[in-house]
Design goal:
This protein is α/β, with parallel strands linked by helices. 41% of the residues lie in helices and 24% in strands. It has five helices and seven strands; from the N terminus they run E-H-E-H-E-E-E-H-E-H-E-H. The two termini are 12 Å apart.
Length: 120
């Protein structure tokens, strides 16, 4: 069985390193992109099973990115988990996120949510 692919769009380098390590240990194939990168283009190119998207990226708004993903025919079904240090769960879900994690969160919370949203 092929590994499920996770795309990380997060601007905190420590968080990227930690999540990459934890997700790889859980058996996922992980790709991270720079905070200023075009997340929609990366999602089209990488075709991940899920995207972990920070609400506040340098120079970008994760909620705006979420809307672009949902409006595009080739990315509208991508499973997206949004995260933030602010409690913006309702807004993220209303804008189309499949799940929300309030930072800081425990790895098991992430793994459980990932399994729930990308289970076959």
């Amino acid at each position: 069985m092929a590994k499920q692919k996770i795309l990380l769009a997060e601007d905190d380098h420590t968080m990227v390193s930690l999540l990459t390590t934890l997700l790889t240990m859980e058996g996922y194939e992980v790709t991270s992109i720079d905070a200023g990168a075009d997340v929609v283009a990366a999602a089209r190119s990488i075709k991940p099973d899920a995207l972990i998207l920070d609400v506040h990226l340098f120079g970008q708004n994760g909620l705006d990115i979420m809307e672009k993903l949902r409006k595009s025919k080739d990315t509208n079904r991508l499973r997206v988990l949004m995260s933030s240090g602010a409690n913006v769960r309702e807004e993220c879900i209303q804008r189309g996120a499949d799940g929300f994690l309030m930072k800081p969160y425990m790895p098991d919370d992430l793994f459980n949510l990932l399994r729930r949203v990308i289970s076959p």
